[in-house]
Design goal:
This protein is mainly alpha-helical. It is 73% helix and 0% strand. The N and C termini lie far apart (76 Å).
């Protein structure tokens, strides 16, 4: 059984760049790097698709938006945690303690225990 090879980004970029240069055929490159020709085509295609966005500000803008969204989600998560802790703390009183607090704070409201 063959094991799948995992290539890092540097290797993929090097092979794709060599394919773009066209100094060698894809078959020669595949032979040199022990990679299938279709894999080299995929890496080359991806490199050509991503080159235009490499030097644009759009990528930086998207990253800033993602960081802003992450910060907002962490803020909401923190707020919900505080609220949950408050609810848990308020539920630590027994039913009898709650009855006493209502009767003490509001003498005109009584709780029928029958």
């Amino acid at each position: 059984m063959k094991m799948r090879k995992n290539f890092d980004g540097t290797f993929k970029g090097k092979v794709a760049l060599e394919a773009i240069k066209r100094e060698k055929t894809l078959t020669q490159i595949a032979s040199d790097y022990q990679v299938h020709v279709s894999q080299i085509r995929q890496w080359k295609k991806r490199l050509l698709e991503e080159i235009p966005g490499l030097f644009s500000r759009k990528q930086e803008k998207n990253q800033a938006e993602a960081e802003e969204l992450t910060a907002e989600l962490y803020r909401q998560f923190g707020q919900m945690k505080v609220e949950l802790d408050w609810v848990k703390k308020s539920q630590t009183y027994s039913v009898e303690q709650r009855r006493n607090s209502i009767e003490q704070d509001h003498p005109d409201i009584s709780i029928d225990t029958s």
